[in-house]
Amino acid sequence: MKHIFKLILFLILLLQASITFADWSDGAACGTNSSTSSASTLAKTPSGCTVNVGDVLIVVFSGNNIDTSDGNTSLCFSVTDAQSNTYVKLREFTNAQGSAAAGATTCVFASLITTQISGAVTVNLGSAITAKSLILRKFNPGAGASSITADGAADLANDGADPGALTATGSDSGQHLWIRSVACETNDGTAMTQTSGWTVSTQGVQADTGSAGTSMATRFEWKVATGTGSGSSDPTYVAADCASVNVGLLQSGGAGAPTATPTETPTVTNTPTITNTPTQTPTVTNTPTITNTPTQTPTITNTPTVTNTPTETPTVTPTPAVTNTPTATVANVSCQAECKRSTTCLRPCN
User: 122-141, pLDDT tens digit by residue?
Assistant: First the structure.
């Protein structure tokens, strides 16, 4: 039995290890799109790739800002596709430059695909804007991945400067896919030079209005790393008003095995709880509680209270009240005395 238990435990640990270290890997570029017409959506049907079930599709979007202050804003409302896959918003950041359409906003979305995509992927915005562009790229999270979540993020605004260094730190020490997105107010088609240890997306795009100040370029680089930190991302592009996000993506599951099965097998460890039955035998120690009955015998000491009956004997003392009879003798004495004093005694004296 011990050998079987050890074997089960070993298999559980083996499965958990394979789940923990499932590898992210690059998939393929899936196309870009841009627009300089005022609208509240921007769509792109994946091209140059097939987005299959189990892939993770990353959507990196750039657009004119609608907020007037830097920060985590809400220009990007959602992402949808024709097959109703679910998209998670990982991060959004705006470099506002003090007024609407004066800076740039970057947004990053991700979806663990449950239905192969055969139509357009659409970014839905909270307001209509003019200049906007996007990049689609798919990644492989490892076979059997069951969910994806954001873990660790950092933001950066660069005013009239090249995108600067940016490091993000998450809370999980597992393997992350780190995405560094860059939105710059420019129509410069220069390719972004990647940071050492990172990989730049070969597909850059810009919505060119004919003026650098009103155009919008999208660039991004990515990295797979195990641990809580992304390391520094410091790519080289052009000097412009730029908004950047560095965000980590975790996946759970993987290694080709459903996570549900291994998590159920640890319940086998409940069988050692059979050892609880010996713990019931100490309950026999309750029998000494019978010794409580001798403690009742001292209550016999109450019987000496019978001594209260002698206290009733003093009540016999009222019998001396018969001593009133001597009053009769007093009467006789007084009668005799009277007869002695009188020559004629009218009553007999005993």
Answer: 999 999 999 999 999 999 99
> What is the pTM assigned to this prediction?
0.69
Cα 88 to Cα 100: distance, rounded to the nearest angstrom: 26
Tell me phi and psi for residue 255, to 5 degrees: 60, 20
Residue 208: strand pairing partners = none
> Residue 134 in contact with residue 205, Cβ under 8 Å?
yes
* Alpha carbons 216 and 285: distance in angstroms, whole number: 82
Single out the residue of 107, 111, 68, 61 nearest to residue 86, CA to CA. 111
Closest by Cα among 125, 124, 64 to 96: 64
Q: Which residues contact 279 (CB under 8 A, 6 or more apart)?
A: none
Q: Hey, what's the torsion of the CAs at 124, 129, 132, 138, to 10 degrees? A: -10
What does the CA dihedral 274, 15, 13, 3 come to, rounded to 10 degrees?
50
Half-sphere exposure of 137 (CA within 13 A, CB side): 25
Six-digit token string for 176: 């992350």
